[in-house]
Amino acid sequence: MERDNKQIVLKSYINGSPLETDMELKLGNRIKVEAPKGSNGVLVKNLYLSCDPYMRGRMLDFHDSYIPPFSPGSVIEGFGVSKVVDSDDPNFKRGEFVTGLTNWEEYTLILNTSQLRKIQQHDHGIGIPLSYHIGLLGMPGFTAYAGFYEVCAPKKGDYLYVSAASGAVGQLVGQLAKLHGCYVVGSAGTTHKVQLLKNKLGFDEAFNYKEELDLEAALARYFPQGIDIYFDNVGGSMLDAALANMRAHGRIAVCGMVSQNSRTDKQSFRNMFGVISKRITIKGFLQSDFIQLYPRFLEDITGYYKEGKIVYIENMNDGLESAPAAFVGLFSGKNVGKQVIRVGSE
Amino acid sequence: MERDNKQIVLKSYINGSPLETDMELKLGNRIKVEAPKGSNGVLVKNLYLSCDPYMRGRMLDFHDSYIPPFSPGSVIEGFGVSKVVDSDDPNFKRGEFVTGLTNWEEYTLILNTSQLRKIQQHDHGIGIPLSYHIGLLGMPGFTAYAGFYEVCAPKKGDYLYVSAASGAVGQLVGQLAKLHGCYVVGSAGTTHKVQLLKNKLGFDEAFNYKEELDLEAALARYFPQGIDIYFDNVGGSMLDAALANMRAHGRIAVCGMVSQNSRTDKQSFRNMFGVISKRITIKGFLQSDFIQLYPRFLEDITGYYKEGKIVYIENMNDGLESAPAAFVGLFSGKNVGKQVIRVGSE
């Protein structure tokens, strides 16, 4: 059986911020909805696709990073939740739901099935939305979990600040920190997001960084005692402002630099000397280095969610054709919560 | 018995780089060469005074650091090696040598004797110069020891780069790293220093950073495989260049920022994104946080020195009046090795 297969293709490597016109919707070749014998692959129908800031790095013509760039003219690759339509891998059966790397298209033949995780039906049954497997229970959730517990060295009573706090990672960092007994302040870029942080996500305080002329002064207002942990999703001037407000022996987990348009944007710091005088640790990390903790993460976070201890906010857009705009919107803060594209029905 | 007591006084808080004219030689009041009964203090004759870059921070009108600023009009305080002339503390006897915080003057009444360390005569006897107790066996040596072993997480075979490599701290970092089985490259600011690094201090390679137009390219030349450990004494553009050349999971121990004229000089970085992609740890430290290791440090380094495994280069200037110029020279790299002022004879 052959089907049409719409795809989102990267037209060429980007310069600076990604634009919708850097990508295009293509019809693609008609695809045989089967996993060829001997391929050991699975043919999946993609249901939800994940828009993640790290993907911007794969749109650059830079081949020396931890993950190779996309190829111009090729379909964009990313995390997704998919349904197995046909399988040549005995570990996966038709009708099962899986999550892992797939393509921004309707149907994908996934040959590297070892990176797929089967979504247990009973999890789905007890009320965890399928799409959460690319958010709360996927890479962004695991980034928050590994970053908070393994990089931040959190203690009860610590003062924690997280930027991009309502995003896919930040919202979970703040909630985990609250469960750990930290005092938690987050920043975001709209009044609506600030309200969500305080009212729905349980942050102690939150502020709109776009309304602050002086980020150092803003942080000093929210942290008169100083910051023990800064979970940094944005880099640049916010990182500098945090440096000025860190306490002695403070920890900065550097998770993202969404404020930076390129790998080599100049970032200016006035407060770098504080790294010495306050014995600050700045530590960059990738969730993939902690992958041995993934089973524990799934168990912990599934448990917290079932017990009603955490919530998760998604920004769901409909249709593969909405993906380029949704992706680009990540970098101007258009999304409220984890950005997901719904491309197919279950 | 009263004596004249020449002193070096800080005239006023500095702006930017310290100048000789920020300090002045004063005759001071005549001093009674005795430790008053009931003072529990010791009256010492100062023999060697230490010029250390951290003292610049105490010349600034900034009261929120780990150590309070000097008071304008007062005698400068710093580490020294001194001889006890009179004692009201039963732990110290006339004629003994001590090291610790003293003043930039000929005679000092030290009331806080708990911070003094007695120099064992037999150490002195077996050929360790007294002045080494403010260098190799003093704060700078301990900074190198604690920074290398406790902050850098060194492994045999690691590629280590140290800036200001012929200085009081850098020269020991490089030698300890060689003993640990690392590949060691240092940078310094003159051909003479580069020769010392290679020929006397046993570095694998060394270069004159002032002759390099492109620091990133220079480091790439000396570390084609990349840098595992950067022991940073200078900050600024060298730190940025090192970031570009770090390997995955690299460690940067931030010990000093001698290139920066003030606490809030703007430092620009183009390579900060590497902190994430290469999972770099940047860690500032102060030796004082590791003080419990001091006894082990003294034993280890004394042992290495006696066995001929390490050497130590000093820049000795004569006379208290030479102190301001010697101190200022630290920041233009005039010193070759640890800068010491000889103010009295043993």
TrEMBL record, chains A, B:
Q: Note the superkingdom of the native organism.
A: Eukaryota
- Protein name as annotated: Uncharacterized protein
Q: What is the lineage of its organism?
A: Eukaryota, Viridiplantae, Streptophyta, Embryophyta, Tracheophyta
